[in-house]
Amino acid sequence: MRIGILTSGGDCPGLNAVIRAAVLTGIKEYDYDFVGIRDGWRGLIEGDVRALNRSAVRGLSRVGGTILGTSRTHPYDAEGGGPERMKATMDRLGIDGIIAIGGEGTLAGARRLFNDGLPIVGVPKTIDNDLDATDYTFGFDTAVEIATEAGDRLRTTGDSHMRCMVLEVMGRHVGWIALHSGVSVGAHVILIPEHPVSMEEIGEYVRQVYDRGRAPLVVVSEGFKLKDMEQEYSTKGIDEANRPRLGGISEMLAPMIQEHTGIESRATVLGHIQRGGAPTGADRVLATRFGIGAVRAVADGDWGSMVALRGTDIVRVTLDEALGSLKTVPASRYEEIKHLFG
Ligand code: F6P
């Protein structure tokens, strides 16, 4: 059997560890053969592939990014896209099935292609950790770790100047990265999309901290909205999937905090640093387990499934279940931590 592997959508630390584990498991246990499909669905549309043998995946679990490249090419809307063309590519290259590693958009494409007859197994990836069907996705732990280090650094410079530092992290419509990194760094206020807060409340927390002689640290998720905002802060247009590009709310908030409290404030947008570089040990382990699980699903002929983490077990869900709902931060998780603010 020959399996094609692709990575699609935004990259994420741990993608290479999935590829390595899938290739090694497939070769060692099932005598499979692998090809790497370049740049997500684009490679499958255009038949752009590379060899993926044992030596191609050597030492890969610690390497960030994806050796296969990625893109946000839509499997149907892109020029030349659609299941017939992809099936023809698979037939021509002798590919019997696909392992597609991606987030919500990729998995939605995979589900549609599966319903149109393509044999596909999904592997979830996103630093945002916003897929409800899995307890965690690899990449999230790395993003939290990087945001924590950034927060620690901001605290020392904030302390030196007695400034309010505002650290903005990614996460799109969910606040998991902000919540976890904010708790880990001991932020004085954590602002997440699921819980709008007014400028008065933020100012109150910041002022309390300052009046105690400390430099306030605010961690804000890029999708956070002040109570009176109707939309998320977005000034960079829309992405290939027609979603508003987020990022930059801290640059709006810091001057507002300064104006509201009179405390000098600075914004830092962490951006893609959260997605680059080596995955943490925890992410390497999860990604490796997902890679093994995906090949086992292929071996069982369980097409149309996605591997997921439940507790400490790797399980399978259907792609339909996988796309059921967004995993938002429950109100109880925010309430649990809120008394530490200020
Ligand atoms: O979904 C992952 C993510 O990093 C989000 O947190 C962020 O909003 C978005 O992707 C950024 O996308 P791009 O890499 O296209 O700028």
Automatic annotation (TrEMBL):
GO terms for molecular function: 6-phosphofructokinase activity; AMP binding; ATP binding; diphosphate-fructose-6-phosphate 1-phosphotransferase activity; fructose-6-phosphate binding; identical protein binding; metal ion binding; monosaccharide binding. Its cofactor is Mg(2+). It is found in: Cytoplasm. The keyword ATP-binding applies. Mg(2+) binds at residue 104. Homodimer or homotetramer. Belongs to the phosphofructokinase type A (PFKA) family. Mixed-substrate PFK group III subfamily. The record marks 105 as: Important for substrate specificity. The active site is at residue 128. This is ATP-dependent 6-phosphofructokinase. Its EC number is 2.7.1.11. The gene is pfkA.
